[in-house]
Amino acid sequence: MDADTADAKLLDAAEALFNEHGVQAVGMDAIRSGSGVSLKRLYQLYPAKDRLVEAVLNRRDLAVRAELAAFLEPYDDPHERVLAVFDYLDAWFRREDFRGCTFINTFGELGGVNDAVAQIARTHKAAFLACLRELVEDAGEPAALADQLAILANGAMATAAITQSPDPAGQARAAAAVLLAAAR
Question: Which domains does the chain have, with CATH numbers?
Fold first, then answer.
């Protein structure tokens, strides 16, 4: 198995296991078993679990940004594009493998002891906020609205994970609509 294939299998397995069980509960042997990659190859590619966690988060960051951009693409009306962020959350919360936001969860587990993980989570959340700021600006609304929408979205992510319900996406969307109307 070449290095690129092994790396992809390791990242796939690690992401699925971390999502289901949390980072600290998953050992390297479980990742090896889940990926089908030998332990020797795993440690060649990722000499420390921290490096694997960082790689999973970096890859997830790129995937989420691309998914959200693709989801928003069909929306023409700037105000509907803002609200469509919450429709994206609704679709995500309904996925069988939804266990909450990878960045919130991993920051909660490791953010206080792993500066790299904390920085990746902060960078991801800053990019999400930047996306909201761009959407709000395109809609001609005040920049402060993006900060409020980010709080709604992140709160919905945490609440949906805890309650195991997609309902917080719709509730947050309704609150976002009120904020948009008030901003006009």
Answer: 1-47 (1.10.10), 57-183 (1.10.357.10)
